[in-house]
Amino acid sequence: MKNYPTIEDTIGMTPLVRLQRLPEQYQVGRGNVILAKLEGNNPAGSVKDRAASSMIRMAEARGLIKPGDTLIEATSGNTGIALAMIAAVRGYKMILIMPDNLSVERRASMTAYGAQLILTPADAGGMEYARDLALSMQAEGKGLVLDQFANEDNPLAHIQGTGPELWEQTEGQITHFVSAMGTTGTIMGVGNYLRAKNPDIQIIGAQPAEGAQIPGIRKWPEEYLPKIYDPSKVDALEAITQDEAENMARELAAKEGIFAGISSAGALVAALRVAQRVENATIAFIVCDRGDRYLSTGVFN
Ligand SMILES: Cc1ncc(COP(=O)(O)O)c(C=O)c1O
């Protein structure tokens, strides 16, 4: 019988597409090309499918978990949706803990995949509070926390998948890689792979500016910095304001036909800033997820 893929097998190998109008509008340097890696094309709709699959597969391979077990995770959204999908595919129970101010589409997607949700009051401490609660539930024996913030299998997904894909899709021409930073799994993993291929490649992180609330990404306080994060592996950090990210999300959809989330637009703001300073560069940025995940926020109205 033919060996058909599972839904999990369809994760990765996402398209890398060239922007056609925004580079000219933003007057980028001569000979620059800006490329969008469309991670919203993954089966559960975001870059997080890669990390979720990697963390569960590797924990299973090490004998830490087996189908039927319960997994717990604090998540700002996309990881929860991805973990809920992989848990459904592989037969795990999934408990997801998230602040109650995150978009309703996200919550509904998680429950559609069969996950149990615990909503924590946003004013009790947001993601930091959710992360602490996940760990205390694990201590009480309620399940295993994968802890995407400290789990090396999160960046591993990008060392094995996203990084090699970008290298091959650009035929080794990539000069700059730009990613918004949440757990930092994407930027750490892709950066690790690309730098080994060419030490001159510039790795640029996009972070919310003071006061900006961009779903999925954070400028973490020192004591909550992800354990997988190594600041020496990022060449430059760009602070993105709320308005910059939201305006760019609208422009990206209307002028390029790429309907993406706010953090993806933030990464593009950073990519365009870089592109205004350099010439003959091949700049790739991560489109983490699709814009329809943010419709209820009114950003696209
Ligand atoms: C919408 C969105 N953007 C960006 C990111 C950042 O990706 P990473 O956690 O790999 O840094 C995430 C991660 O959850 C996300 O959900």
From TrEMBL:
UniProt pathway: Amino-acid biosynthesis; L-cysteine biosynthesis; L-cysteine from L-serine: step 2/2
Enzyme class at the top of the EC tree: transferase
InterPro entries in the record: Cys_synth, Cys_Synth/Cystath_Beta-Synth, CysM, P-phosphate_BS, TrpB-like_PALP, TrpB-like_PALP_sf
Co-factor(s): pyridoxal 5'-phosphate
SUPFAM superfamilies: Tryptophan synthase beta subunit-like PLP-dependent enzymes
Swiss-Prot/TrEMBL catalytic activity: O-acetyl-L-serine + hydrogen sulfide = L-cysteine + acetate
Taxonomy, superkingdom: Bacteria
Key word Transferase present: yes
Domain Tryptophan synthase beta chain-like PALP: 7-289
The enzyme's E.C. designation: 2.5.1.47
Family as reported in the entry's similarity comment: Belongs to the cysteine synthase/cystathionine beta-synthase family.
PANTHER family the UniProt entry points to: CYSTATHIONINE BETA-SYNTHASE
NCBIfam families: cysKM, cysM, PRK11761.1
Protein name listed in UniProt: Cysteine synthase
Higher taxonomy: Bacteria, Pseudomonadati, Pseudomonadota, Betaproteobacteria, Burkholderiales
